[in-house]
Amino acid sequence: MFKEYSPAPVLSRASHTKPVFFETVCSLTKLRLTVPVTMKLILIEMNTGLAKAPSKQKVDNKLSAEREKAGGALPLDHVAIIMDGNRRWAADRSQPRMMGHKAGVKTLKHLVRHVGNLQLKFLTVYAFSSENWQRSKEEVGFLLDLFQNVLVTELEELAENNVRLTFLGDLLQLPESLQASMRRAMEKTSANTGLALQVAINYGSRLEITEAVKKIGQEIVAGRLQVDEITDELISSHLYTNGMPDPALLIRTGGEMRLSNYLLWQAAYTELYVTPILWPDFTPEEFDKAIVEFCSRQRRWGT
After folding, report:
1. What is the maximal distance between C-alpha atoms in the chain?
2. What is the pLDDT of residue 53?
């Protein structure tokens, strides 16, 4: 099962709307960090003793209240996640890093069930970046095989749970057998009306934007489009996420303070939630805490 945390992470927030620098002292490492912030950023530090995190009962009560206000659903449509920390989780347990990736799959399986029950409409997860090819051949091969095995073993359950599965990224660079499995999974779940689960694989946001610009340029050259007709909406329509709302909340596990080339265009006004909890230990209860924190934010959209 999953590791229980006591005490739970402490939440602190940066509320500035203009680019500023803030300083936070990490009491565990005695290290002073200076971090540039251009969007609201939540910092979560474990065991600092600065404040007490809400109890599970309080989180459940707050989440229930927010769902009631939203008519039974969550007060947001789309959550994106950077699933970071598998290898560190394995290293902490003196296990091969591959075991961390396997544990991460189990975490995602539990979370998909949970958010489906909460009636979340869109969940987008970062599974394999276009930069991950730089890892060892052994690890890359293991990950690609793991993706294919998961599609085979979990597809029936996803279909039965009314999940619609799609993939974001440069899929043509993946092995043919994996591409075939992905096509079968998308076809089998295409008519489902529940949770829309997007798995970003061989994904890089800069590449995504570059390809969108190329397609728009081709339309201009062909005379089908004028330069002054280019809008935000037009660019969005050429991205992998065409037809989806931008994520309202982006969760990053593992504590790193960066976006890692993930949904850069789509996350322009996304609320960020960073937790030091490593991905294999990220439970549905931790997800609920992130949603409750999101509900406490005031989204000003630049005003």
Report:
1. 63
2. 64
Active site residue 145: no
| DSSP at 266 | T
Distance CA 257, CA 267 (A): 15
> What pLDDT score was predicted for residue 269?
95
CB 41 within 8 A of CB 17: no
**Tally of domains in the chain:** 1
pLDDT digits (tens, 9 = 90+) for 174-226: 999 999 999 999 999 999 999 999 999 999 999 999 999 999 999 999 999 99
pLDDT band for 18, please (50, 70, 90 cuts). very low
Confidence check: pLDDT of 19 > 90: no
Clarify whether 84 is annotated catalytic.
Answer: yes
pTM over 0.85: no
Q: How far apart are CA 196 and CA 122, in angstroms?
A: 5
**CB-CB contact of 83 with 199 (8 Å):** no
Measure the N-to-C terminal CA separation of the chain; round to a whole number of Å: 44
CATH number at residue 286: 3.40.1180.10
Q: Give the tokens for residue 94.
A: 């003196």
The catalytically annotated residue of 47, 60, 77, 132 is 132
Strands of 15-171, DSSP E: 20-26, 31-37, 41-45, 78-82, 122-129, 164-168
Residue pointed to by tokens 């993939």: 167
Contact call for residues 84 and 253 (beta carbons, < 8 A): yes
Residue 240 is assigned to a structural domain of this protein: yes
**CA gap 270, 205 in Å, rounded:** 15
Answer for the pair 75, 64: CB distance below 8 angstroms, yes or no: no
**Domain span including residue 191:** 77-296
* Chain mean pLDDT for the chain: 86
CA nearest 8: which of 295, 280, 276?
A: 276
Please say if the pLDDT value at position 147 is more than 60: yes
